[in-house]
Amino acid sequence: MLRSGVMRIGSSGTALLLLVGGCGGKTLVAGGGGADSGARSTSDARPPVSDATEPGADGGPASPCPASPPSAGQACSPLHLFCEYDVTNINPFCNDLWQCDLSGWDSNSGGGSCPSSGLTCPDSYADVPVSQACTVSGQVCSYPTGTCGCAEPPSGTGNPSWGCLPLPDGCPFPIPALGSACETPEQTCDYGSCIGGVELECVYGFWGIAVTHCFG
Q1: Which 3 state secondary structure label does DSSP give 127?
Q2: Which band of pLDDT confidence, cut at 50, 70 and 90, is reported for residue 82?
Q3: Which pLDDT does position 216 carry in this prediction?
Q4: From the CB of residue 73, how many other CB atoms can be counted at a distance below 10 Å?
Q5: Residue 134, pLDDT score
Q6: Is 8 exposed, middle or buried, given 0-12, 13-18 or 19+ CB atoms closer than 10 A?
Q7: How far apart, in whole angstroms, are the C-alpha atoms of residue 10 and residue 198?
Q8: Order of strands across the sheet with 82-85?
Q9: Counting runs of H as helices and runs of E as strands, what totals does the chain give?
Q10: pTM of the model
Q11: What share of the chain is helix, strand, coil (3-state, %, to 5)?
């Protein structure tokens, strides 16, 4: 079952931490068009954190994330920045996730539905059997045209099934590493937040985690 997280609010009033409950409030659809070549897996849908620390191809700023995981309480900036390491899952809470808060770096890892990495996904977004039964609850498959996930019903009872969400226009693929630079303030990109994935928001020039409300 998809989990609920704690909501944290930045100094500007921007919500920065994922809040996931049931499934709903988002439109889950099949198909979506576009060419998605090659099978995707939960382990290859995110760039490694080392990519986030390099300047952007357009000469933009490098990520302020440390090149390696920090220590709890170590001084950090800017406040509320998210950085993730050992990126093996689309859901950042399944990776080695850290956030910069008033007391320094704080670990935000753990929780959620975190299936084993390396699971094989359907070859393309259009091939995902939406609404049909699936076997690994929490598995998420990311494609250039959208994100699909194997999720349990919002009620928490019944068998898991596939749901899909198309990727909004202008959103990057693969899913950016948290803390990497972004260009459009307040831009949000939903990578299946209500089906085991995550929604990102461009805050202070870097990708963070947006609040997502999912209703049954």
Answers
A1: helix
A2: very high
A3: 58
A4: 10
A5: 94
A6: middle
A7: 18
A8: 82-85, 96-101, 104-107
A9: 1, 9
A10: 0.73
A11: 5, 25, 70
